[in-house]
Amino acid sequence: MKDECDYFTLSAQHIQRNYGARIAVYDFTLQLKKGEVLGLLGPNGAGKTTALRMITGNLAPSSGSIEVCGVDLLGEPQKAKAHIGYLPEIPPLYLDMTVNEYLRFAARLHRIDKQRIAHALEHCKQRCGLADRGKQLIGTMSKGLQQRVGIAQAIIHEPDIIILDEPTVGLDPNQMREMRALIRDLGKSRSVILSTHILSEVESVCDRVQIMHDGRMVLNETLAGLRQKDADLEMEFTRLTQNPQPITH
Amino acid sequence: MIFTIARKELYMMFCSPLAWMLLTSMQLLFAWFFLGRLDAFLQLQPQLMQIANPPGFTEIIVTPVFALAAIVLLLMTPLLTMRQFAEERKSHTLTLLLSAPVSVTEVVLGKFLGLIVFFMSVVVLIVAMFLTLLAGGTLDYGLLISGASGLFLLTCCFVALGLYISSLTIQPVIAAIGMLGVLLGFWVLDLVTSDHEGWTYYVSIFKQFELFNNGLIDTFSLMYFLLFMLFFLVLTIRSLDGERLHG
Question: Exposed e or buried b for every residue in B165-181, given b needs 16+ CB within 10 A?
Fold first, then answer.
């Protein structure tokens, strides 16, 4: 059992979420290995964001269990959340703050030691290409830079799991490429979940792909496995998500 | 962690002009009223000399200024509390607080602490103004402290209530209007309350403050304030937690 905990950094088993009578996420299982980049695909409204909100502890699942690095997210939320860095769809930025102030607050919020804050701040600014932006007000920055601040916030405490909800939306092609390079880089030492609906992005950075449709998981396959089967991601995606009654495993 | 959040709240307030404008306008208003009372006192002084046990500075100047301050704060607290959860929600920053390894209780208490530190500065500024009276006489410190702590406790209650109302909505303006409505309700309740009887006397928050302001620290009033705060803070925590569970 211990080995499994080390092996899987995140394990969500059969989680389900109901909004009244509507089921947003149905029997969703997700397991993330250390050093793996998982692409979570799906059309709009498939339940990706709801699933991610549950995994990050923003939303309680109606049923099912979530374990983060062997810690039960529902039982010990604070201990579990310390392992997660989360960038929601809309980056949670205080526009009145400068980059430094904002990141310092994020660092304190994640209980980084006082002595280490300055170092962590420099390190993550360097990583996200914000080194010379420290004194700029977040409100005056472009969308791409704001997105980078959002990522910086998610990695400042060096979490084991990084969850990015559509991180490349609204970026220009150059920024998109940089963002992908950053995600690949992060994926070397940590587990990353990347939610997106850009298929090429998944193909270029992810090791494994899960497709969601109507709140269900309709595909869970490694990219290597897909290539082996000679299947095209786009065709698979269209086949699985245009079908009114999706095939479940 | 509570302090981290409180510090951020204070920082956010003071890095925007809002807090400074509020402090300045309130202080101007209080100073104007204070000078008006001082004038009245100086005019009354010859007559007061003839009374055996005349009321001093404190009764004639300090108490009415505190009473006015309570009403002004009733109008001002919604402006600050409305932003707390409603605006965080609107600008999607609440996610940052809720995804961090911080409990909802810590978030709520942090925000509460940040705001009451701000309002403490309002009370301290008013008291500082009174201390200038020492140049011409002595103050009744007991009455001054009792009035100031009454005012402070009253605003703490306002803040707790404001946080709760702010946690219910995504629109800051609705939070402000809602809170103003409730507070005006309390005020009307106070206006219709006779001096020492009826249930309204026990429910009215301003009556409890009045006792403090008259130098009477009653355990009932003290418990009233503490329970009021506790009640709304717990409701706030439950409301935010409920969002995670049911929202």
Answer: bbbbbeebeebbebbbe
Residue of A nearest to B102 (CA): A78
Question: Cβ contacts (< 8 Å) between B247 and chain A: which residues?
Answer: 59
pLDDT at A47 over 50: yes
Q: In this structure, what CATH number is given to the domain that contains residue A41? A: 3.40.50.300
pLDDT, one tens digit per residue, over B135-149 is 877 888 889 999 999
Q: Is residue A249 part of a domain?
A: no
Helix (H, G, I), strand (E, B) or coil at A40: strand
In this complex, do B96 and A58 lie within 8 Å of one another by their Cβ atoms? no
Contact of B151 with B77, CB cutoff 8 Å: no
Chain B hits for A96, Cβ within 8 Å: 12, 15-16
Distance CA A56, CA A68 (A): 9
Q: Given CB atoms, is B17 within the 8 Å cutoff of chain A?
A: no
Q: Are residue A137 and residue A167 in the same domain, yes or no?
A: no
The 10 Å Cβ neighbour count of residue B222 is: 16
Q: Which among B1, B15, B95 is the nearest to A88, CB-wise?
A: B95
pLDDT, tens only, B97-115: 988 999 999 999 999 999 9
Which of A79, A84, A94 minimises the CB distance to B93?
Answer: A94
Q: Per the domain annotation, does A55 fall within a domain?
A: yes
Number of domains observed in the structure of chain A: 2
